[in-house]
UniProtKB/TrEMBL annotation:
<dbReference type="InterPro" id="IPR016135">
    <property type="entry name" value="UBQ-conjugating_enzyme/RWD"/>
</dbReference>
<dbReference type="InterPro" id="IPR050113">
    <property type="entry name" value="Ub_conjugating_enzyme"/>
</dbReference>
<feature type="domain" description="UBC core">
    <location>
        <begin position="4"/>
        <end position="155"/>
    </location>
</feature>
<protein>
    <recommendedName>
        <fullName>UBC core domain-containing protein</fullName>
    </recommendedName>
</protein>
<keyword id="KW-0833">Ubl conjugation pathway</keyword>
<keyword id="KW-0067">ATP-binding</keyword>
<keyword id="KW-0547">Nucleotide-binding</keyword>
<dbReference type="GO" id="GO:0005524">
    <property type="term" value="F:ATP binding"/>
</dbReference>
<dbReference type="InterPro" id="IPR000608">
    <property type="entry name" value="UBC"/>
</dbReference>
<dbReference type="Pfam" id="PF00179">
    <property type="entry name" value="UQ_con"/>
</dbReference>
């Protein structure tokens, strides 16, 4: 990982730790190793949407590459709890334009986590994307290697 990427990520991790919401809805995961900037774990909870249990914590894996922040990180939901959402596949891959073609270097891990939290908070149906089972059976490990077709503002 480049020095630019390391410095930027260290700053973002510090920012995320400092801006963690006091209600616990957004925080740096206690399982995240602060020395490992190649896979930062972020925990979010969804409070205020009756479709989701507000006691459940969803974990996001944020994996930047050597070109970060000029290329998007690989962002997925990991762990036993993958939120049910029309743009989140059961393998944790997320179809959201800002994680792919819509990426901008001004985005940070905090802004990405808040965008995901907001996307889920605004959800009105508990369902997976069309073709979830088929996609997951042949999806690459890195979601950036998928060929996404964005048919609305998110996916």
């Amino acid at each position: 990982m480049s020095l630019v990427a390391r410095k930027r990520l260290a700053k973002e991790v510090k920012e995320l730790a400092q801006t963690s919401l006091s209600d616990g809805t957004l925080s740096l995961s206690p399982d995240s190793d602060s020395d490992n900037l190649e896979n930062v774990l972020i925990d979010i909870r969804i409070v205020g949407n009756p479709l989701y249990d507000d006691s459940v914590t969803y974990r996001i894996s944020y994996k930047p590459d050597s070109e970060y922040p000029f290329t998007a990180p690989a962002v997925t939901f990991v762990g036993p709890e993958i939120p049910m959402h029309p743009h989140i596949y059961s393998n944790g891959h997320i179809c959201l334009n800002i994680l792919y073609d819509g990426w901008s270097p001004v985005q940070t891990m905090t802004s990405v986590a808040l965008s995901l939290q907001s996307m889920i908070l605004q959800n009105t149906v508990l369902e997976r994307p069309p073709g979830d089972e088929q996609y997951c059976s042949r999806a690459p490990a890195n979601p950036r290697d998928s060929r996404w077709v964005f048919h609305d503002d998110n996916c």
